[in-house]
Write a structure and sequence with these properties.
It is built from 6 helices and 26 strands. The C terminus is likely disordered. Helix 1 packs across helix 4. A hairpin with a 2-residue loop joins strand 3 and strand 4. The chain is of the alpha/beta class and about 280 residues long.
Length: about 280
């Protein structure tokens, strides 16, 4: 893989004149090999190591090079026609992935066994962990890293990050629940086991505040095992006093998988104690 990374980096450095670096057919072979690694889950764009996000820039470079090297083409799927540069994933049955009609994922994304895609979309470079549900109209943007046993509820928007190549993508930890219509963008992170109520907006500019202390615990990063809702805090400006968005930690969970909400196994998420607590403190 190190040799492949070196070849991709060399192509990226000479991207303004790719033909001077290597023949176009050879360049496509190199880039396709890198994208296939992502597609099979044998490589990933980013991961968390010792609490820090490590971005493997050469894989992002391969994705960006792919768009330079490929031509637009017409694809027909039943009565639908598309005009794009990249094919969709295929062979879901052997990957043990369930895709409901209307769900789609691009080549170069990885869906682990047990993933369920409702009518939703997963972009290139994204990674969706085992037994995760991407619910109706949810989108997983380019290079986003979604953990195992996650529930991305209806209409959730997970933002994509391709450029610059060193920019960190959105990372959602294992055993999390992201409520309907949440927007998680610009490299925001959700820690393992956390529960986000409906409509939470999270990006690196959004403060995350502990309701018990009033302290700001960070920006754009929800710690593990927290119940979080959308809130506002007052700020004075020359034009008056306004409420700016923040993410409010209502409660800390005990940090075990048993405390995480029931997902899509057939039981109602509202039956779980964490969800009941969220409902009782926000109504």
């Amino acid at each position: 893989m190190s040799d492949l990374a070196e070849q991709v980096t060399r192509l990226w450095d000479g991207r303004d004149d790719l033909d001077a670096v290597m023949p176009r057919a050879e360049a496509r072979t190199v880039v396709h090999e890198a994208i296939d690694l992502l597609d099979r889950g044998e490589a990933r764009v980013a991961e968390v190591v010792d609490g820090q996000v490590v971005v493997h820039e050469w894989l992002k470079q391969a994705i960006l090079l792919l768009f330079r090297l490929e031509d637009l083409g017409v694809m027909e799927v039943g009565p639908f026609e598309y005009h794009d540069k990249l094919p969709l994933k295929h062979d879901y049955a052997s990957a043990r992935v369930r895709v409901v009609p209307g769900g789609s994922a691009r080549w170069g994304s990885y869906l682990a066994p047990g993933v369920i895609l409702m009518p939703s979309y997963v972009n290139i470079g994204a990674r969706v962990g085992a037994e995760t549900m991407v619910d109706t109209w949810a989108t997983v943007g380019s290079c986003a890293q979604i953990g195992e046993r996650v529930h991305l509820s209806g209409g959730v928007g997970i933002g994509g990050v391709l450029e610059p190549p060193q920019a960190a993508p959105v990372i959602v930890g294992d055993d999390t629940t992201v409520g309907s219509r949440c927007m998680i963008t610009q490299g925001a992170r959700i820690g393992e086991g956390s529960v986000l109520g409906e409509g939470v907006i999270l990006n690196p500019a959004i403060p995350v505040i502990d309701a018990e202390t009033g302290d700001e615990v960070g920006r754009g990063i929800v710690p593990p095992w927290c119940i979080v809702v959308q809130a506002t805090r007052k700020r004075d400006f020359p034009g008056g006093e306004f409420g700016l968005p923040c993410a409010l930690i209502l409660r800390r969970l005990d940090g075990t998988r048993a405390s995480s909400p029931t997902r899509w196994s057939g039981a109602s998420p509202s039956a779980h104690p964490a969800s009941r607590s969220l409902a009782s403190r926000t109504t």
